[in-house]
Structure formats: structure tokens, C-alpha cells
């Protein structure tokens, strides 16, 4: 068997899909009613999208829908991160119900996901799903199922409620009793057994005395993978025993994927931050002469003049320019100081290995909203650029990344002008207020809105020709036009020319030059 067979087996198991029946490679899925391999026939699916925020005040709580007693497989999710919050209300008193007092699973919003609630159910009693409005656009998609074959009724809140059952069943359920030991990568939290009414509502433990109580145990939590991070090993010994040298350390991109796949080495591209240095300079101090007691026993004794002894030069110039060092010792009690050999010397060596070098990041391509930043990335060898294939591809630094100086407000967008329908128009185009992600917005400056309709460019010449030799008309119809148009105002710039050209009898120009045309008296 090959040495990498266990890794290949692990990879195949990770890629294999496991169905809801626990069988590897099975295509069975839970349907909307929570039945493995079902066809959504055992319950009535009720879903909707709540997105109307007209008239809502910031901080106000608005009911989305009522989740009736017996509802199961409940899910509610904000379609995008927002300042609004999902809340649960008591259907009878209207009081807010904390999530930790229910069996609902609450997931706070993340960088690209909105807040969500889920509960397998069934509900022991009706609750109201509501939203605390935080401003801006919103969207909450919800869905739940009602068991079929039960009598239902509809109240003023349009929620469906099944009829009450004559007998209630109780059972033990395991509930989280502590914080998760990890924020990601699969942690553990203590679980305790609680007695619940059929559907999930908490009741005193005496209701379950006739049943065997499960023992306290731990359960998995926060199973999503952790972000990849750079891991640095300890610095190794200095390359020189004295004088300047270098020391190295291991640097790897690692990630905690699950409880069983911890500290896994992954591709360097998975780590978002800049990688730290693998080497650094070090200095063990000046290389001084060795003490006499450290010399061999057969060296000169007494007061005789000794000789200078040296070690071999260090490998200080593995690549580029540097300094080589060596140790110097006297073989006796004293040596001629004028003849002392040098302890260091400069050296230079052509680098045979190529490495990646990156420049500074450019300014963001946009003053607001999403943009891009770039920087030069070169493969250098002996201070000269070479082809990229000479450097390790997996070590290449990022040359481009996303950026955002600040969020943009709404801006006016307009299309090209359409064709003229007649000699004097009108000519029109589309004008929309959009945010930085090209979604409809409402915070554009209304006074800066571009004109959406105008007369054709050929109309001005025609108007000037009609004015020549003409007199102001006295049509009685013009005196009544100010009563036909609400908020009478001039929206065209050439209303004086329209009046002199006697075009106020045309309804288009009469309504767009309402003030000017209404000045004509019979």
C-alpha cells in the first residue's frame, strides 16, 4: 500500500455525502416536514417573506406572523445582515421571550449571513415571530409546517392553529447547560436533561418521573471550521557561535476544521493575513580571544610568547552580501597584539535561489463602497527580476485584494435618452436611486435627481421659428390650466419660449409649463 493511502482514504470519506439515514452515498434528504426521504405530504408548508418597512420607526417591534401551536421545522432568517433583530413574543401577553428560555436555536449574524432562528418542534403553544426594526432595508424569510389531518382555524393574525389535543405527553430532552468550549472548529458544552411537554415546552421534572432520566453528558457545538491562521514555530539557534548570524523558524498556514481534524496544514492562500518572516538576523556578541585554560594541554607554558590560533570562517554568505566571522585565541599567556588576525571580513556571493518580493499596496480604487487594491509582486534573484516559475508558486504573495474606504450612500443612475416620438417630443429616460451594490435605495438627494423627460433637441429651433412675427395668443383655454394640474410648477427650462411659440394649447407643454401658461388671460 502506498504511504499516502491513509490520506487518500480520509479525503474520500470527507468528500463522500452522507444521507439523513446515516448511509454514506445515500441521497435521502429531510423534507420540509422533517421526514427523512419524505415528500412534504405529512404536513402543510406555510412560508412567506416579510420586507415591508414602510411606516416603521427605528426601535419599534413589528409582528411578522404567529407560529401556531403544533408548528414544526420552523425557520426564520434575515436575507442579509442588518441592524434589525428577530424576537419572539408571547402571543397572549405580547411580552418578549428570551431565546435562552426556549428550545429555539439562535444564530447571530455573520459578515455575509443574516441572523437566523430554527426549531424542529412541534411548538407546545403559539408564539409570535416579530422584528425589532433597526433602520434601512429589511427582509425576513420564514417557513414552518403544520401536521395534516388536524382541524385548523384562522384568527385575526392569519395564523393557523391546530385544535387542542385531549392528552399531553411528556418526555426528557437534552438542553445545553454551559457555554461552548470553542467558538469554532467543534467544541463541547455540558447538557442536562429537562422534562418537556409534547412539542418542547418546559414543565416540572415530576411530570417525567415515570420515565428514566438520561444522565448528564457533553454535546458538540460551534462545528463550523475556524479561519485559517499562520502558525509560527520557535526560533532556531543562531548560525554563528559569536558575531552576526541568522536564525530560522517554521511558518505554516493551519486551520481547525473539526473536532477530529485539528491544526491541519492547508494551502498558504487560505490565510488572509500577511505571513511573518521565516528568518531574522542574530548576534551572539563579539568573538574575543579564548582563555588560556581552554587551550590544549600541550600548548606553550610559562612566560614564552604564544602564537595566534584561528577557527575556520563561518558560512556567512550563503546568498547575497554579508559578513564571515571566526574565533581567535592565543596559544599562551600573551601574544603580539599587532599580529592579531581579523575576526570578521565582508563577503559576497551570487544568490542561486529566487524569492518573492512585494511592493506597497495602492490606494483603494473607489472613494466609497467596494473597490480593489493592487501591488507589484516580483520574483527576484540576485536583485534582478526573473520569470515567475523560478519562485515557489504556493508562496506567492497576493497581488490584489478587496477594499472599502467607507460605505457609499444612494446615488442617482440614469439611462441614455430614448428616441423622439414626435418633432417636439417628449424624450424620456430611466432614472433610479441605487446603493453601492446596485440595489434600490431611498437616501438619494432629491434636489440632485436628473431630469427624466425633456423636449427633443430639434424642438427648440422649431419654437424659435414659430415665434418670429407672432403675437401672444388670447385663448380662453389657457386661463384654466392651473386648475387641471396639482402642484402647478414649471419643469422645463424653455417655458418662456413655449409661451411665445403658442404651444400652451398642447397638453404636454401646458402641464410642464403650468405657471407660465396660466399667466395668459383671455
From TrEMBL:
Residues 1-20 form the signal peptide. The keyword Transport does not apply. Residues 484-521 form the PLAC domain. Gene3D superfamilies: 2.60.120.830, Thrombospondin type-1 (TSP1) repeat. PROSITE patterns: PLAC, TSP1. Keywords: Repeat, Secreted, Signal. The keyword Repeat applies. One of its GO terms (cellular component) is extracellular matrix. It holds the Pfam family PLAC. GO terms for molecular function: metalloendopeptidase activity. It is found in: Secreted. SMART domains: TSP1. GO terms for biological process: extracellular matrix organization; proteolysis. It comes from the Eukaryota. This is PLAC domain-containing protein. It comes from Cloeon dipterum.
Amino acid at each position: 500500500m502506498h504511504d499516502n493511502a491513509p490520506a487518500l482514504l480520509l479525503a474520500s470519506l470527507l468528500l463522500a455525502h452522507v444521507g439523513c439515514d446515516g448511509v454514506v452515498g445515500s441521497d435521502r434528504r429531510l423534507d420540509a416536514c422533517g421526514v427523512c426521504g419524505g415528500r412534504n405530504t405529512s404536513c402543510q408548508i406555510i412560508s412567506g417573506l416579510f420586507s415591508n418597512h414602510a411606516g416603521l420607526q427605528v426601535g419599534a417591534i413589528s409582528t411578522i406572523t404567529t407560529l401556531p401551536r403544533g408548528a414544526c421545522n420552523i425557520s426564520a432568517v434575515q436575507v442579509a445582515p442588518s441592524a434589525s433583530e428577530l424576537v419572539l413574543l408571547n402571543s397572549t401577553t405580547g411580552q418578549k421571550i428570551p431565546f435562552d428560555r426556549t428550545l429555539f436555536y439562535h444564530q447571530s449574524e455573520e459578515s455575509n449571513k443574516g441572523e437566523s432562528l430554527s426549531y424542529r418542534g412541534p411548538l407546545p403553544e403559539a408564539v409570535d415571530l416579530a422584528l425589532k426594526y433597526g433602520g434601512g432595508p429589511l427582509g425576513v424569510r420564514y417557513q414552518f409546517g403544520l401536521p395534516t389531518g388536524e382541524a385548523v382555524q384562522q384568527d385575526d393574525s392569519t395564523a393557523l392553529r391546530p385544535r387542542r389535543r385531549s392528552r399531553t405527553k411528556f418526555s426528557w430532552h437534552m438542553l445545553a447547560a454551559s457555554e461552548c468550549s470553542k467558538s469554532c472548529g467543534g467544541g463541547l458544552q455540558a447538557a442536562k436533561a429537562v422534562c418537556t411537554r409534547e412539542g418542547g415546552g418546559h414543565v416540572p421534572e415530576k411530570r417525567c418521573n415515570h420515565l428514566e432520566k438520561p444522565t448528564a453528558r457533553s454535546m458538540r457545538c460551534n462545528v463550523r471550521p475556524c479561519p485559517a491562521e499562520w502558525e509560527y514555530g520557535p526560533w532556531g539557534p543562531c548560525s554563528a557561535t559569536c558575531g552576526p548570524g541568522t536564525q530560522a523558524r517554521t511558518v505554516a498556514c493551519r486551520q481547525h476544521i473539526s473536532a477530529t481534524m485539528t491544526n491541519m496544514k492547508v494551502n498558504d492562500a487560505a490565510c488572509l493575513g500577511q505571513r511573518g518572516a521565516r528568518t531574522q538576523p542574530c548576534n551572539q556578541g563579539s568573538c574575543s580571544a579564548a582563555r588560556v585554560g581552554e587551550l590544549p594541554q600541550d600548548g606553550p607554558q610559562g612566560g614564552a610568547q604564544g602564537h595566534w590560533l584561528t577557527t575556520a570562517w563561518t558560512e556567512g554568505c550563503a546568498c547575497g552580501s554579508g559578513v564571515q566571522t571566526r574565533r581567535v585565541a592565543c596559544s599562551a599567556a600573551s601574544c603580539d597584539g599587532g599580529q592579531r588576525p581579523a575576526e570578521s571580513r565582508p563577503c559576497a556571493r551570487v544568490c542561486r535561489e529566487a524569492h518573492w518580493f512585494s511592493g506597497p499596496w495602492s490606494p483603494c480604487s473607489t472613494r466609497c463602497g467596494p473597490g480593489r487594491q493592487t501591488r507589484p509582486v516580483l520574483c527576484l534573484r540576485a536583485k534582478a527580476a526573473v520569470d515567475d516559475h523560478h519562485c515557489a508558486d504556493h508562496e506567492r504573495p497576493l497581488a490584489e485584494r478587496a477594499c472599502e474606504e467607507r460605505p457609499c450612500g444612494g446615488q442617482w443612475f440614469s439611462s441614455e435618452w430614448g428616441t423622439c416620438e414626435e418633432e417636439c417630443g417628449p424624450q424620456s429616460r430611466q432614472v433610479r436611486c441605487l446603493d453601492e451594490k446596485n440595489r434600490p435605495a431611498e437616501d438619494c438627494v432629491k434636489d440632485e435627481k436628473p431630469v427624466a423627460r425633456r423636449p427633443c433637441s430639434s424642438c427648440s429651433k422649431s419654437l424659435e421659428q414659430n415665434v418670429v412675427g407672432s403675437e401672444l395668443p388670447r385663448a380662453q383655454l389657457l386661463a384654466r390650466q392651473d386648475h387641471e394640474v396639482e402642484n402647478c410648477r414649471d419643469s422645463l427650462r424653455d417655458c418662456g419660449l413655449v409661451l411665445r411659440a403658442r404651444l400652451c394649447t398642447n397638453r404636454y407643454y401646458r402641464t410642464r409649463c403650468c405657471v407660465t401658461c396660466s399667466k395668459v388671460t383671455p
